[in-house]
Specification:
The protein is an alpha/beta fold. Helix content is 39%, strand content 15%. It is built from eight helices and six strands. The strands form two sheets. A three-stranded parallel sheet has the order 2-1-3. The chain has a three-stranded parallel sheet with strand order 5-4-6.
């Protein structure tokens, strides 16, 4: 009988160093949701911020795929997490934010927001709220490219990204003379999403719809599951 390759995955996010438990629980819930789409798989979640969580997750699984629940290739995916995976001989996948299916998923969600309000994209601004970084270009570049791709597909009047940790800051990018939708380019509903993004939007007097972090999108578990399934071949 042909045997499948070991089918297990560890979904890893950064988490919140000052308060790791809520995000650790959120990753475990995400892992359970992903596993519901993958019969026969073992899937766990872990944050780098929770001491020992990554090692415990690896120990509980059989040679798991490492799935970075990050929005961009950067320091943590390219150095920290990649170093851990390499040391253990594990395969690390590309981060969530680079999933090809993410753009059409966002397009559908934005189209639903427009339709619900009777708005047209050509009369609407798209604001992509993102992390940004003072030391790396990948976070800002990823959000900017995301906004440009959606504008190209949907024909928004304007599409721009605004950041928490670098210019152009979100409070400035969110100011608009037109109706606007804000898409949050964040994986977790933590830290910046809880405090900085709402504060910046309030300062900008932004009154349009604001989409949640991707962990709260109902389609996210299936998107991750499909990516994991494609990554594991079936032995002949």
């Amino acid at each position: 009988m042909p045997q499948d390759h070991p089918r297990s995955a560890l979904i890893v996010a950064h988490g919140s160093p000052s308060d790791p438990d809520p995000q650790e629980a959120a990753l475990q819930a995400l892992a359970r949701a992903v596993a519901s789409h993958l019969p026969g798989w073992q899937v766990r979640g872990a944050t780098l911020a929770a001491e020992g969580a990554f090692d415990a997750g690896v120990a509980a699984l059989e040679a798991p795929l490492i799935y970075p629940f990050f929005m961009a290739r950067g320091y943590f995916t390219g150095r920290v997490l990649a170093g851990k995976a390499e040391a253990l001989g594990l395969r690390q996948m590309e981060p969530f934010g680079t999933e090809p299916a993410l753009i059409p998923l966002a397009e559908t969600a934005l189209a639903e927001q427009l339709a619900a309000r009777g708005w047209h994209a050509a009369e609407t601004d798209l604001v992509v709220a993102a992390h940004g970084s003072a030391v790396s270009r990948t976070s800002a570049d990823s959000a900017r490219d995301f906004a440009a791709a959606l504008q190209g597909r949907m024909g928004f009047a304007a599409a721009r990204s605004g950041y928490v940790e670098e210019e152009p800051f979100l409070k400035d990018a969110a100011r608009s003379s037109r109706q606007a939708i804000c898409l949050c380019h964040f994986a977790l509903n933590a830290g910046h999403m809880i405090d900085d993004v709402p504060e910046a939007l309030a300062e900008a007097a932004f009154d349009g719809p604001v989409l949640p972090a991707f962990i709260d999108w109902p389609q996210t578990p299936q998107l991750i599951a499909e990516s994991l399934r494609r990554a594991v071949p079936v032995a002949a």
